[in-house]
Amino acid sequence: MEISQNEFLHLYYYLRLTRALEERVATLYRQGRIVGGVYTSHGMEAISVGYASALQTEDIIAPFHRDMGAFLVRGITPGEVLAQYLGKRTGPTKGKDGNVHMGDLKRGIFAFVSHLADNLPVATGAALAFKIRGESRIVATNTGDGGTSRGDFHEALNFASVLRLPVVFFCNNNQYAYSTPLHHQMAIKDVVERAKAYAIPGEIVDGNDVASVYLTAKRAFQRARAGEGPTFIECKTMRMHGHSEHDSAKYVPRELLEEWKKKDPILKAERMLKESGYADESDFHETKMKVDKEIEAGLEFAEHSPLPEGPEALEGVFAANHIEVLI
Amino acid sequence: MTTSTIAHDVTYLEAISQALDEEMSQDERVFLMGEDIGPYGGAFRVTEGFQQRYGQWKVLDTPLSESGIVGAAIGAAMMGMRPVVEMQFADFISCAFDQITEMAAKNHYRWGAEVPLVIRAPYGGGTHGGPFHSICPEAWFFHTPGLKLVAPSTAYDAKGLLKAAIRDPNPVIYFEHKFLYRRIKDILPIEDFIVPIGEAEIKRTGRDLSIITYGAMVHVALEAAETLDQEGIDMEVVDLRTLSPLDTGTLKDSVRKTGKVIILHEDTKTGGIGGEIAAILAEECFNALDAPIMRIAAPDIPVPYSPPLEEFFLPKTNDVIIAARQLAAY
Ligand SMILES: Cc1ncc(C[n+]2csc(CCOP(=O)(O)OP(=O)(O)O)c2C)c(N)n1
Questions:
Q1: Domain annotation covers residue A288
Q2: B27: domain CATH number?
Q3: N or C of chain B: less Cβ packing under 10 Å?
Q4: Residue A154 located in a structural domain
Q5: Which atom of ligand 1 is nearest the CA belonging to A239?
Q6: Does the beta-carbon distance from A114 to B67 stay under 8 Å?
């Protein structure tokens, strides 16, 4: 095994935490307690958990809307996430934005905007700053398969490649963009083909295998840190829920979901942990209990947090002082 | 059977579907393009069942490429087609910005090429969409010569304006307010009708002051007018319906009659359409004014998500009532 017990247990813990948190979020949505949209990474947790875990503290992520695991790995707490969803003042955006549209420079997270692929040129720009300053920091960013149809995706890849910037592009290829299947999105079979046009080395990984994502990410991050430029990593997976929790996703063939259910990233991780002798059922149970407790505590925090008051909406349009945030 | 043969209460959303359906069935050149509009029927289900009826080339699901969609629509329009494209949310129209402002808007002026294109833009707040699913982006395009902008407030206008937009030889951005989709209804005529582009409408006549508005805010104004009526203040509600080109005649007539005016919009205040209307009225109706022109609009911030913040952001009936009382006191 190329991956140590500690590393794997860390990955497993975050898979569980992400799953449990998003399940709770989906429940809150169904109960009408979350009023905005809810987009989960159910069944795709291995991608964001895997790549974020392979980073160093001083690195930056520019995640997209199915990267809950990355937020958690970078230190956003379940309580903060729930506060964000519930529109509370204690969420990372203080109620100004919802769902996973949250960021924190202190924890190296750029906030996502809905406009898909807008995060990629910005990720590239962070890498540019590191290159100019001669720092060994790198940037990881992610997009869906649908997002790769936007011009900003292509501009970012080209820009990063021409300047050999330390940025690694991930693509969560979950076969659908809302109701649009992959073959209506692109005429190529693998998204990774897109990287060729920009002379960016590309790799395909099993996006449901957290160890593969982690190890592939690690290698790409090393390349980037060594000044060898960007890598593109296509993570094959499947969107197991609707586009958002309001969508029943009738357009997705049931058999396809059944097939992918067997490849669930948590089941897969548990199998590997057992085979390697790293953990057994009782460890899994313990992790689950621990995670559930954390979610409960998080919900307690979020529910007891105050909503912002109306006039707080006016705060923060402009920066007042220069704050030295970077590590 | 098309839905248009039924004369019953029709929602704002159904009115939009009916307009598309009728124009498609009577004009072969009309086709629809957008993300998830085919089998799925669009994020708001405006085109539900359309692909079955008209086929995949008339109801075209596209890749996730707003600039590509609008650019392709412009090209097809110049070749004699009549594309109607859907932005999944108006917010994403920014991804197609230069195709709209540089290509669509300037082609006819520069070299005489007509661009009969309609862009449907589901816009507006009140639905907890947050900063990227709530905006009112009309002012970006209001500033661009060569574009027509319409923003219906009723099901009747929604249908009539969309049909007029599709028949218009120019690029038209059709702002459909998401909050109104299923909240308001009208009984619509069975016969074919349009609402001409460029005509405002008095939605309520009044003597004491005028309020000029559009979109969802028309309903806020009408509600305020009811309360004010009980206080003896008779407010005229002018619905712009077309934002560009503005029907300045109707606005001026109303203000000359009442001598007092509030301009109300959901878009943020600075650089909003209200500023231009205020300037026109100041330039051309100064002598008729008995009080300062008042504007009510959202504050100059992004649209926030959390309910108390969004509630604070949106202009409310009470804001209108307070402003109207102040004006009435002059
Ligand atoms: C520019 C832009 N257009 C449309 C949308 C609406 N929208 C949100 S998510 C989505 C599908 C995204 O698909 P993909 O990139 O594959 O990511 P997934 O949601 O499948 O993970 C769409 C069309 C958007 N957010 N941004």
A1: yes
A2: 3.40.50.970
A3: N
A4: yes
A5: 20
A6: no
Q: Domain residues for A88? A: 5-301
Task: Tell whether A32 is within 8 A of chain B (Cβ).
Answer: no
Ligand 1 binding site (Cβ under 6 Å of any ligand atom): A 66, 114-116, 144-147, 150, 172, 174, 176-178, 239, 243; B 35, 64, 66, 88, 92, 95
Same domain, B160 and B248: no
Catalytic residue among B108, B133, B143, B177: B133
Question: Taking the model in full, what pTM does it have?
Answer: 0.96
Answer yes or no: is B192 within a domain: no
Instruction: Give me the tens of pLDDT residue by residue for chain A, a chain 327 residues long.
Output: 799 999 999 999 999 999 999 999 999 999 999 999 999 999 999 999 999 999 999 999 999 999 999 999 999 999 999 999 999 999 999 999 999 999 999 999 999 999 999 999 999 999 999 999 999 999 999 999 999 999 999 999 999 999 999 999 999 999 999 999 999 999 999 999 999 999 999 999 999 999 999 999 999 999 999 999 999 999 999 999 999 999 999 999 999 999 999 999 999 999 999 999 999 999 999 999 999 999 999 999 999 999 999 999 999 999 987 666 555
In angstroms, the separation between the Cα of residue B68 and the nearest Cα of chain A is 8
Distance in angstroms (rounded) separating the CA atoms of residues B273 and B263: 9
Kindly report the CATH number assigned to the domain that includes residue A27: 3.40.50.970
Domain that holds residue B116: 2-187
Q: Is residue A319 part of a domain?
A: no
Residue A269 in tokens: 């991780």
Question: Per DSSP, which regions of chain A are E strands?
Answer: 60-62, 139-144, 167-173, 176-177, 180-181, 202-206, 231-236
* Structure tokens, A116: 């898909």
DSSP 8-class letter at A104:
B
